[in-house]
Design brief:
It contains no helices and eleven strands. By secondary structure, the protein is mainly β. Strand 9 and strand 10 form a beta hairpin.
């Protein structure tokens, strides 16, 4: 079993920056993809960005050019640097990790961290 612990959320004014971190611990075989999702009130959870173990990245169109995802494979940690934040970025941000070391890959979620952007 893998535990994901997120940190770095908070309240920031529009135009500001925040950096989220997510560390994986527990019985880890081979984490392939790590990523961030977010869910705003009344909306479905959506992908923000993900990064593979090889460093390939993918971003939602709404955050391209403002957010940067990175990871430290040795520490099983993923980061999300969020710049030029907008009120519409307000949401609970969830860390996600896929352990591909099993016959069927296992997906894990963090508990979520609140990001609030004031106008």
């Amino acid at each position: 079993q893998v535990q994901l612990v997120e940190s770095g959320g908070g309240l920031v004014q529009a135009g500001g920056s925040l950096r989220l971190s997510c560390a994986a611990s527990g019985i880890i075989k081979s984490i392939s993809t790590m990523g961030w999702y977010r869910q705003a009130p009344g909306k479905q959870r959506e992908l923000v960005a993900f990064i593979t173990s090889g460093g390939s990245t993918n971003y939602a169109d709404s955050v391209k050019g403002r957010f940067t995802i990175s990871r430290d494979n040795a520490k099983n940690t993923v980061y999300l640097q969020m710049n030029n934040l907008k009120p519409e970025d307000t949401a609970v941000y969830y860390c996600n990790a896929v352990d591909s070391g099993y016959y069927y890959p296992r997906t894990y979620w963090g508990q979520g961290t609140q990001v609030t952007v004031s106008s």
